[in-house]
Design a protein that fits this description.
The protein is α/β, with parallel strands linked by helices and 437 residues long. It has helices spanning 2-19, 30-43, 56-65, 80-88, 133-138, 168-181, 183-195, 206-212, 223-231, 260-271, 273-277, 304-310, 317-334, 339-358, 362-376, 388-395, 401-435, and strands at residues 21-26, 48-53, 74-77, 92-93, 106-107, 110-111, 120-125, 127-132, 159-162, 197-201, 218-222, 236-239, 247-254, 287-288. Strands 1, 2, 3, 4, 7, 13 and 14 form a seven-stranded mixed sheet that branches. Helix 2 links the parallel strand 1 and strand 2 (48-53). Helix 6 packs across helix 7 (183-195) and helix 6 (168-181) crosses helix 13. The N and C termini lie far apart (97 Å).
Length: 437
């Protein structure tokens, strides 16, 4: 009898402990999550925060795979299109009571919260270029200001970016350029820029870490990763190009969450004045949603509304969400997995361009134009990503054998075509250079 009582007591204690735990699925760095975990638990002694750290793409897949009742409680990440994907699968649930009504309805023309009420802006973010000031000085490189600066030959081998399939913030940067320039022109710009890349890292934090320590000269990053380095004393600076967007970093209640009531308290805390003030910590360095009149902002801290006014892109999260899996797959097949071939083609194009500038040759110029077209034309045209059937294929589960075969075959075709295009572009550029001798 006594054993049964003890067992029942222990079981009740375990259930109580479980009921008091909020599992937060997030791509954010430890510096941010630990600060919020400690501050919230101190203010709410009966609730524990459990951090489950995954990149955004993996987080979406993780939530999709789990049955109701076994899912994490909260999704917290920068990429609004990832939340659009989760909402489209009915994996988020509304929690309007967590919203801080002191926050503005919009940042620029972009809604702070999902109009359908499935996810909410908790911080703000822009996308741009960071650089190590000592590195640029040592290599006699000018500070870049626009994405187009990174196409210049002098930046060859000095740029780092993470893969959008491993980083939701990189996917947003890529999508911002695609929306700002248009699909075909945007991909041409991205491919030419990536031809100058030194590395495509498998985690977003590797880029700012590499810029902070001088491994890379220039990084393509979300603002807070660069600003955290700058305000923590690293020789780093950052710029928002004109072709950027300011969009919310979001937080949402996952449908089928284990502890929704406690989860809502955590969500509300992140949007409260104390929660927003934490964003100014030099190790976090994020832009808040609340007006600065309600907070104590450091002198000279970027003002989100000012950045939004200058930004040329009005980000469309629904468009981004619809083509999200196509963009990340296409980037991997053309850039991540074919970086060496793209680098070789780009290096040959740079050399041929210099040679033909010194000694013009009509046939050489024609060969160079062909090389550029082969290297910097996307394998999927704008008309394809407007095709619902094409987009739907990428939305289907790869657990389906037929779907998996189709997608694998298509991606292999892209990879083979990219390799062949880059090799042919390199050959044509070398021929063009030879004609300029």
């Amino acid at each position: 009898m006594q054993r049964r009582v003890i067992a029942a007591t222990l079981a009740a204690a375990c259930l109580a402990a479980q009921a008091g735990t909020v599992t937060v699925l997030t791509s954010f760095p430890k510096e941010l999550t630990t600060a919020y975990q400690k501050a919230f638990e101190a203010a709410n002694p009966g609730i524990k925060i459990e951090i489950l750290n995954k990149n955004t793409t993996a987080s979406v897949a993780y939530v999709r795979e789990l049955p109701e009742g076994q899912r994490p409680d909260v999704m917290w990440a920068s990429a609004p299109d990832a939340f659009e994907v989760l909402a489209s699968y009915k994996l988020l649930q509304s929690a309007p009571e967590v919203v801080n009504k002191s926050a503005p309805a919009k940042i620029g023309n972009y809604p702070l919260n999902d109009p359908k009420g499935m996810y909410y802006g908790q911080a703000l973010a822009g996308y741009g270029i960071s650089w190590n000031t000592r590195y640029l000085k040592a290599h006699k490189l000018a500070e870049p200001r626009e994405w187009t600066d990174l196409l210049k030959p002098e930046y060859f081998g000095h740029i780092a970016i993470s893969s959008p399939s491993r980083s939701g913030t990189t996917q947003l940067t890529v999508e911002t350029i695609l929306q700002g320039e248009g699909w075909d022109k945007g991909w041409a710009q991205l491919l030419e820029m990536m031809g100058n890349a030194a590395a495509v890292t498998d985690r977003s934090f590797a880029v700012p870490d590499g810029v902070n320590n001088g491994q890379y000269g220039i990084g393509i990053v979300i603002d807070f990763l660069a600003l955290a380095g700058k305000y923590s004393g690293y020789p780093v600076d950052f710029v928002y190009p004109s072709m950027t967007a300011v969009v919310p970093a979001n937080i949402a209640l996952i449908a089928g969450a284990k502890n929704p009531d406690e989860a809502k308290k955590f969500m509300a805390y992140t949007m409260s004045v104390p929660g927003q003030q934490l964003l100014f910590d030099p190790k976090i360095a994020r832009l808040p949603i609340l007006p600065y009149s309600m907070l104590k902002a450091p002198a000279g801290y970027p003002v989100p509304q000012d950045i939004a006014k200058r930004a040329k892109v009005q980000f469309d999260s629904q468009l981004s969400g619809a083509r999200y899996p196509v963009v990340i797959s296409l980037f991997d097949q053309m850039v991540t997995f074919r970086l060496k071939e793209l680098q070789a083609a780009t290096k040959a194009i740079h050399e041929a361009t210099r040679a033909l500038k010194a000694k013009p040759n009509a046939k050489g110029s024609d060969l160079l134009a062909q090389a550029r077209s082969l290297a910097y034309t996307p394998l999927v045209g704008a008309e394809n990503v407007k095709n619902p059937e094409f987009l739907d294929l990428f939305r289907k589960s790869r657990r389906d054998v037929d779907v998996s075969k189709q997608l694998t075959g298509l991606e292999q075709m892209w990879a083979d075509k990219a390799r062949a295009n880059y090799e042919r572009a390199r050959e044509l550029a070398e021929q063009a250079r030879g004609l300029a001798k």
